Amino acid sequence: MTQCAWKGEVVIISPYVLKVIRTYVPEEDILLDEPMCRHTTFRVGGEAACFLKISSAGQLAKLIPYFKKVEVPYFILGNGSNLLVGDKGYKGVVLQIGNRMNKITVQGSYIRAGAGATLNAVAKCAQENGLAGFEFASGIPGTLGGGIVMNAGAYDGEMKQVTEQVTVMNEEGEVLEIDGKSMEFGYRTSAIKNRAFIVLEAVLNLTSGDKGEILAKMEDLARRRKEKQPLEFASAGSTFKRPEGNFAGKLIMDAGMCGYTIGEAMVSEKHCGFIVNTGRASASDVVAVIREVQRRVKEQFRVTLETEVVFLGDF
Question: Among 24, 91, 143, 270, which is 20 to 30 Å from 247 by CA?
């Protein structure tokens, strides 16, 4: 039994489901038929049937078990930095964990931060408190929750190296603690990625350092990102995972795909590992470029490129 149905191109959530939602979420935090292009760094995507701005774990503890019971599909959103939403939108409920759940506290060498805190904000807090080890995350445009789920990393650093403990919620609304060593972190994956857990907060274990040296390293990484990555365009960061023994960007470049364009989606000329939105690309444009890149690299080098980007909704 599903409570979602199509009406032409518009998705309708049943009045009864909306009534339940309104019991736990203020009206101003409920957005119906919300364009997802407003909530992803790719700046593409159709409408979500219902978009909720979540303020607390308590709201999640009420909503998630209910959605599971009545079979309403839902998706947990952070900063939308690794997400491609289809042009036809998403029929379910998007729950955004953002700046309402972004508290950051410091105790000794430990930082406790809400899942909605941006990685940049956590890195800045670490620097201001003379804590080293999180510089790598300072330029990653996502939230801590998303970073934990996918073991975000850059420049020889990753969440695995610093995560002490993760607080999650399961589909029954129960809150659980997972030790960092039990997180099964791997390349762009974790114990949470393929399970129905929602990250609520995490504790990071850092080391004492010199504030000036930490800042200098963050500035150096920012400069390197600006020089090598197409930050001037909307994108979801690195589109493809690094294939074993290779680099996605080099394979794509060697396949002659640099600058390859469909509509207004393009393989970046600055870094071929990025597919960018040069103006008003559609999700279909982006997917078409991804598929053609995968096809040509497979054809020429017998390497299968897997995407880092998460696909959501109908394309």
Answer: 143
Q: Return the amino acid letter for 114.
A: G
pLDDT in tens, 245-285: 999 999 999 999 999 999 999 999 999 999 999 999 999 99
Q: Is the pTM of this model over 0.90?
A: yes
Measured CA to CA, the distance from residue 62 to residue 263 in angstroms comes to 43
Quote the tokens at residue 224: 């390197």
Q: Is 182 annotated as catalytic?
A: no
Q: Which of 34, 47, 135, 308 is the catalytic position? A: 308
Pair 180, 167: CB distance under 8 Å: no
Of the candidates 139, 167, 193, 132, the one whose C-alpha atom is nearest the C-alpha of residue 60 is 167
**Are the C-beta atoms of 304 and 294 separated by less than 8 Å?**
yes
- Give start and end residues of each alpha helix (H) in the chain: 15-24, 57-70, 119-128, 144-149, 211-228, 248-254, 283-301
Structure tokens at 47: 């409408």
Does 109 participate in catalysis according to the annotation? Answer: no
Catalytic-labelled residue, pool 43, 81, 135, 188:
188
Active-site residue, selected from the candidate residues 109, 190, 238, 282: 238
pLDDT digits (tens, 9 = 90+) for 47-86: 999 999 999 999 999 999 999 999 999 999 999 999 999 9
Angle at 308 between CA 201 and CA 196, to 5 degrees: 45
